[in-house]
Amino acid sequence: MLRIGPTCPDAACAGLCELALVYERTSWGWLTWTVPDDGTLPEHPQQIGVLTPDATLMQRLAVRWLTRHPATRIALTTHNPASLRLSTWVVGVSSPLTGLYALNRGLPAALVLPAMLLAPLLTEHLPHRLDDRAGQHARSVDGDPACRYLHRLAALHTCLVQAAADRDASWERRRSAEIGHHLLWYAADLLQTSETKAASVRLIDIERLMVQLADQVTHSLERAAAAAGSGPPDHHQPHGGPGPLGLLPPGFAPAAPTTQEPSPATSPLKGPHPMPQSQTDRSARTTDTYLLFAHEPYYPDSCTQEVNTTVVAADTLLHPQVQQPDGARIHNRLTRKRTPGEIIPLSTLTHELDGGADWPQVGDWETVTTDLVHLVRTGECDALSLGLPEIGRALLCAGPHSHVRVFNAAAGQAIAYGPQERAAVLAEIDTLLTGLVAEQAFWPGDGLLPPIFHQP
């Protein structure tokens, strides 16, 4: 914690309202507090900064630069608001002396004189350039509404960080802390670039996921404490209010407690892992649906047939290695009022999202599908990998009411393929998928995040 001396500009109120600026550095960023000298504690920070996830050493040093002691400035005149840094004054006074000494030592004047002139200018303006460069690796939020919102998320993320700090912390807790940092970074970026009201929908989704992550980690700590024969530790839980996490934000439903530990899967095709859901959410959601999407072709090991289309279980979108909260929001759209066992192409979602205009409000589908392909290729989930012909693949990439026209050069005419042919391709894939699922249910992966609750 870095404490910086009085910031109250009115000397007459010294001892009464004199304030001190405090930078509280954390593993994920910093909080700036304005603390009165009378000992009262502030309720909310006046600035919150979030460091980029997976930061390098240089990026962490950039954050320390941003939270350094503010520069002391000296006014040019009594009535002139212009001022210079104290370091600029020092360099401005010392540079002529240093220049004369260098000239006496025989250094060329063409080198010494420009250095004498440029040294004060660099001292004054270079820190601003370094601030801009360091700010690329952090997102800082100012203003009371934005800081209050991000402070709530930071409190939840602190629970995840504390749980992951134990030596015997499981991979699930460490991964939850990593996801929490990404959510905090995403929220800070939204609050920095847009108003709270304009980004309220995406911010609510982020806060729901953060609450569910903290709730999931709390249950993990309780199970670990029960297995060790002791009660659950209280220092990881916020105090006050109902439920294991205290008072939840308005409109939130607490996650249903798990009744038994899911059996770990040792290999793919080991059956689905049920996730706890509330009764209301279960009735509104169709979990046994599938996502179909096309991607860049690749060739699996020891196979000459390319794979250009993949089908995965909808719950794979909740995998922690998929970009979140984008994957959870796409899962929310994918499972709304669907037919059990239905295969939904990504292009169908695009059609439902106003032809793709609403994708920015849901998530980055390109990154999500890239992550899904990586999961499939590394064996982290089950999938149906297909090598579709060009026309069939083009039909699935087009919307449900679109047409694909192919020019037949031999016949000199264009052949149109439309919704009927698209439905036939989907029917063939459904037949193949049904046969696979009849033998063994699709495995969506391990450590899945809870789904986003449906709005009433």
Q: Give the averaged pLDDT, no decimals.
A: 76
- The helix tally amounts to 13
Ranges with pLDDT <50 over ≥5 residues? 6-17, 231-283
Q: Span from first to last CA?
A: 43 Å
Q: What is the total tally of β strands?
A: 13
Which class best fits the helix and strand makeup? alpha+beta
Largest beta-sheet characterization: 5 strands, antiparallel
The percentage helix is 40-55%
Q: Which strands sit side by side, in order, in the main sheet?
A: 1-2-3-4-7
List the helices and strands in order: EEEEHEEHHEHHHHEEHEHHHEHEEH
Percent strand equals 15-25%
Shape type: elongated
Q: In a few lines, what is going on in this structure?
A:
This protein has 13 helices and 13 strands. The chain is α+β, with helices and mostly antiparallel strands and 456 residues long.
